[in-house]
Amino acid sequence: MTEQEPDLEQLETDLLAALETTAGLDGLDAVRVHALGKNGVITGLLKTLGGMTPEQRQVEGPKINGLRSRLADAIAAKKAALETADLDARLASETLDLSLPPAAAPQGTVHPVSQVMDELAEIFADLGFAVATGPEIEDDWHNFTALNIPASHPARAMHDTFYFPENQQRDGKPTLLRTHTSPVQIRTMTSQEPPIRIIAPGRTYRSDSDATHTPMFHQVEGLVIDRDIHMGHLKWTLETFVKAFFERDDIVLRFRPSYFPFTEPSAEVDVGYSLENGRRIIGGDPNAEEGGWMEILGSGMVNRHVIEACGLDPDEWQGFAFGCGIDRLAMLKYGMDDLRAFFDGDLRWLRHYGFSALDVPTLSEGVGR
Amino acid sequence: MKFTVSWLKDHLDTDADLDGILDTLTAIGLEVEGVENPGEKLADFRIAKVISAAKHPNADKLQLLTVDTGEGDPVQVVCGAPNARAGMTGVFAAPGTYVPGIDMTLKPAKIRDVESFGMMCSERELELSDAHEGIIDLGEDSGAEVGEAYAHWAGLDDPVIDIAITPNRQDCMGVRGVARDLAAAGLGTLKPLQVPDIEGEGAADIAIRTDDPEGCPAFFGRTVSGVMNGASPAWMQKRLRAIGQKPISALVDITNYIMIDHGRPLHVYDRAKLGAALFARRASDGENVLALNGKSYRLDATMTVIADDEGVHDIGGIMGGEHSSVQPETTEIVIECAYFDPETIALTGQRLGLASDARTRFERGVDPAFLDDGLAIATQMVLDICGGSASEVVRAGTPPEGTKTLRYDPQLCATLGGLDVPIDRQRASLESLGFTVEGDGPFTVTVPSWRRDIDGAPDFVEEVLRLERFDSIPSVALPRAEGVARPTASPEQKRERTVRRAAAARGLNEAVTWSFISQDEAALSGDSSDSGAPWALANPISEEMKVMRTSMIPGLAAAAKRNADRGAASIQLFEVGRRYLEDAEHPTLGLILAGARSPRHWQGGGAPFDAFDAKAEALAILDAAGAPVDKLQLFGETSGLYHPGRSGRLCLGPKNTLAEFGELHPATLKALDLDGPAMAAEIFLDAIPMPKATGGHMRAAYAPPALQAVTRDFAFLIDADAPAGDLLRAVKNAEKQHLAEARIFDIFEGEHVPEGKKSVAIELTLQPGERSFTDEELKAISDTVVAAAQKAGGELRG
């Protein structure tokens, strides 16, 4: 019997046609099994090669293998096309209305007073000042007497002091809410060997309440005690601080003789302001139209009596001290106009004037925001 | 203190202009607080003469005046003043003039059909006084010229300067002292003071003595008889008015004038109201006096008074008494010029809560060498203005020695003041201020009697520097500390900064609330045995700000309430501050969560906060603060602020509470009028142990596990009311070597769970070491965990 020669061309044509009409991946697989599966037609043809003479095989082998290879390529190509079509179809159905706003994580804020305290700490750290603290409930020795303000001193009457009842004494001394951060000077000098460079920010209290005064407010104190410190250092330090704080070089300070019992000589410090874009800003020419001076600091060389009261020898140690309102610094820098709003906790105000948690003042990024 | 430029020039010979005076005042420490020229706003008012006056045709009470204004033809003015008449000289305002007293700019007008071109003015219209009965009548012999500026003629063109006097500068609480300082600063020459020498006739007809040499070391006085106490002269009234003092009567005005002129308070008594002797003594406890301000004061034995045998006539050096005050009919007077002890005056003034110009000066220490001069100047003025004849002076006691001698090394100006001023220049400065300087190296300086404030070498530095002006001190950079810059914040400060920013990063807004709260608010946090806060102010500004807070929550809750009232839907506030307890002030972070956790949103939101939100914040902040959060135990029994079943304390051991959190008690909400529910937490920052310093920056060597971790799930049944946290803790502690994490991933009660029980599903993460777990090892771990859970009351679910 003569075996009929399989018509490879016809077979290829048929298989490619079947492939062409296949619509899905399942159909594609059926074609693959039919042609190249274990019992597939091409697999069957390949099996016949074993029974052939070497000469026949030389002729038929490439034909059958060529067929198999072309078909496998065609199947792969078809598969890729079908998969792309499938994906396109799926993507076409997978749409989102991205005009919708996503839920936002709540944004918290840091209070301007805290932010300014951090700014001060950063500026003064660069000058070698550490941050010191002290109690807000003080005794009258630390708040007054040691600061050269004896009981009869007129300056005591100028401090509208909150007192605690007479039976609440501490070490036999009347207790009160500190009227300034200056007692931290005393606490530092009595507990620490000079040289000393500190700032002491914190809450202070005076029995005063009107549009521009609140019974609680914030001050920062500065103290330098060393051997050869004089008023020139005081001027430089305050100029450096104020310029760094407001981040302007065109700031001028004016030092005026004044009086504080705990410093001698004493100076009040005015800063020049000017009008920019309709708002009063620190810096610029104070002598220009709409310009002027405003008082921002009290300062002076630490009084010998104070150094003595702290157990130090005033012939060996001398230095300067200064004090300044933090709330006011914040208002002047960031433009708030109402002190009372600082202490109201109004979320709208806090979000308007507050700072992001990430706004940490640094020297490299600038201390202001 | 206020004075006018012309007044200053009584004492200071200067050609400096106003700006020069103002600038120098501030530069030498007499800070100018204000300057006003009352003449400026009256610059347009002219002196004018009424030529004729006729009745208004259409109004009974109006007149038609023809007024010569000195410019052009006379003008017609309609005038309603009853005293307007032909021939009088007055003050005219032309159309276009702003009249301050009626706050109006004049325009030509028709009044009852008759045209009026300007107006004749009253004192009130010029804001000179309240007088409005008629127009200003300058009188026959005023010497005023028609057309002249009224302000100039009236001496109103005299700027009033207001300066702030620091408490150490009593010497500048008189115009003469200010002039002395300005002269020293190079602004002119101090005119010599003319002190009259009045011997007086005969002895005073009253005995004067001091029985309290401590409180009143010196009491000088004399009588003047036959005085007429009318109005003080116009020049004096003008000056007193210009500086805001109301003229009262000649005698009172004279004492006020000398107080401003020389900083020397005096008192004048009506002799007729006094007994045979006038003397200084201590008051007796409970003694009363009606003072010149119309108020009665209850005195005590620490206070010095001037009295006669009948009673107190003067709270010495502070305020006179009503009874013996001078009246228009007074004819016999006693003039007192005394020295009162500054400390006594200060304490008396504080105790009585009584402020006066005299007290301000005496408590700062008036010039003790000026008693005779002050008395002589006053006597002369009384004689000149009120007439009469003066007695001899009575001098009881002696004022303290005013001068003192101090050493001053002029080098100090450079070493303390930072400005190297040549010695001769320093000497000249000090001498110009009245100091006597001897020596060439270290000076021996005699301090003048009026400078009680000078008590040491640094004071001389200040005197020299202020005349040099502080602006001339060169700035010198602070030397940089050697070595590497160290952190300047303490660990406690770093912790406060960290938790603040951690809380803000979690969406909370930092508030700053008052440290003081009301007694009622304070009581909310206490349990029944301790309802009060330990620190309550003796003199609070109001009941709402009376006690120092022992909890941050009431203040924050009040802030939350204000926000809720403003319509805030979601309130998340925190504060870093102190709680004021008996022993100390404790740094604390308090927070409050009220309203919705997040706003209503299409993805969810709008749900209210619950106690777990407060716990989450507490744990996150504790973690940021460096607390060992894994080791914390939960205890109940929170403060009275909280819902007892929905609050807890996070503790390290039963005694050390690091944080308290939970839902606020309905009673708390009700008391604060806050719509609930609201959550709160307090993190007690100083209760958190400080992490041990590692002594360097090196981290432990990095050794990632070689093999992947495996997870195993367990479900345990425990009593429904038992804390699942305890079970979790027991499981976590069961195995230390391999157990990396244990997490509750499901809590279930209901179907297939026995009544009264709940199912707690826990996922364990197990980390193999060098080689993978064998089945035996996994079973062993599993058995250990199950056993530990069982001990904690957990039964493995089948």
UniProtKB/TrEMBL annotation, chain A:
<dbReference type="Pfam" id="PF01409">
    <property type="entry name" value="tRNA-synt_2d"/>
</dbReference>
<dbReference type="InterPro" id="IPR004529">
    <property type="entry name" value="Phe-tRNA-synth_IIc_asu"/>
</dbReference>
<dbReference type="GO" id="GO:0005737">
    <property type="term" value="C:cytoplasm"/>
</dbReference>
<dbReference type="InterPro" id="IPR006195">
    <property type="entry name" value="aa-tRNA-synth_II"/>
</dbReference>
<comment type="subunit">
    <text>Tetramer of two alpha and two beta subunits.</text>
</comment>
<dbReference type="GO" id="GO:0000287">
    <property type="term" value="F:magnesium ion binding"/>
</dbReference>
<keyword id="KW-0436">Ligase</keyword>
<dbReference type="Pfam" id="PF02912">
    <property type="entry name" value="Phe_tRNA-synt_N"/>
</dbReference>
<protein>
    <recommendedName>
        <fullName>Phenylalanine--tRNA ligase alpha subunit</fullName>
        <ecNumber>6.1.1.20</ecNumber>
    </recommendedName>
</protein>
<keyword id="KW-0963">Cytoplasm</keyword>
<dbReference type="GO" id="GO:0000049">
    <property type="term" value="F:tRNA binding"/>
</dbReference>
<dbReference type="InterPro" id="IPR045864">
    <property type="entry name" value="aa-tRNA-synth_II/BPL/LPL"/>
</dbReference>
<dbReference type="GO" id="GO:0005524">
    <property type="term" value="F:ATP binding"/>
</dbReference>
<dbReference type="InterPro" id="IPR022911">
    <property type="entry name" value="Phe_tRNA_ligase_alpha1_bac"/>
</dbReference>
<keyword id="KW-0547">Nucleotide-binding</keyword>
<keyword id="KW-0460">Magnesium</keyword>
<feature type="domain" description="Aminoacyl-transfer RNA synthetases class-II family profile">
    <location>
        <begin position="114"/>
        <end position="361"/>
    </location>
</feature>
<comment type="similarity">
    <text>Belongs to the class-II aminoacyl-tRNA synthetase family. Phe-tRNA synthetase alpha subunit type 1 subfamily.</text>
</comment>
<keyword id="KW-0067">ATP-binding</keyword>
<dbReference type="GO" id="GO:0006432">
    <property type="term" value="P:phenylalanyl-tRNA aminoacylation"/>
</dbReference>
<keyword id="KW-0648">Protein biosynthesis</keyword>
<dbReference type="InterPro" id="IPR010978">
    <property type="entry name" value="tRNA-bd_arm"/>
</dbReference>
Automatic annotation (TrEMBL), chain B:
<dbReference type="InterPro" id="IPR005121">
    <property type="entry name" value="Fdx_antiC-bd"/>
</dbReference>
<dbReference type="Pfam" id="PF03484">
    <property type="entry name" value="B5"/>
</dbReference>
<dbReference type="InterPro" id="IPR005146">
    <property type="entry name" value="B3/B4_tRNA-bd"/>
</dbReference>
<feature type="binding site">
    <location>
        <position position="462"/>
    </location>
    <ligand>
        <name>Mg(2+)</name>
    </ligand>
</feature>
<feature type="domain" description="FDX-ACB">
    <location>
        <begin position="705"/>
        <end position="797"/>
    </location>
</feature>
<dbReference type="InterPro" id="IPR036690">
    <property type="entry name" value="Fdx_antiC-bd_sf"/>
</dbReference>
<keyword id="KW-0694">RNA-binding</keyword>
<comment type="similarity">
    <text>Belongs to the phenylalanyl-tRNA synthetase beta subunit family. Type 1 subfamily.</text>
</comment>
<dbReference type="InterPro" id="IPR020825">
    <property type="entry name" value="Phe-tRNA_synthase-like_B3/B4"/>
</dbReference>
<dbReference type="InterPro" id="IPR045060">
    <property type="entry name" value="Phe-tRNA-ligase_IIc_bsu"/>
</dbReference>
<dbReference type="InterPro" id="IPR041616">
    <property type="entry name" value="PheRS_beta_core"/>
</dbReference>
<dbReference type="InterPro" id="IPR045864">
    <property type="entry name" value="aa-tRNA-synth_II/BPL/LPL"/>
</dbReference>
<keyword id="KW-0460">Magnesium</keyword>
<keyword id="KW-0067">ATP-binding</keyword>
<dbReference type="GO" id="GO:0004826">
    <property type="term" value="F:phenylalanine-tRNA ligase activity"/>
</dbReference>
<dbReference type="GO" id="GO:0000287">
    <property type="term" value="F:magnesium ion binding"/>
</dbReference>
<dbReference type="GO" id="GO:0005524">
    <property type="term" value="F:ATP binding"/>
</dbReference>
<dbReference type="InterPro" id="IPR009061">
    <property type="entry name" value="DNA-bd_dom_put_sf"/>
</dbReference>
<dbReference type="Pfam" id="PF03147">
    <property type="entry name" value="FDX-ACB"/>
</dbReference>
<dbReference type="InterPro" id="IPR002547">
    <property type="entry name" value="tRNA-bd_dom"/>
</dbReference>
<feature type="binding site">
    <location>
        <position position="453"/>
    </location>
    <ligand>
        <name>Mg(2+)</name>
    </ligand>
</feature>
<keyword id="KW-0030">Aminoacyl-tRNA synthetase</keyword>
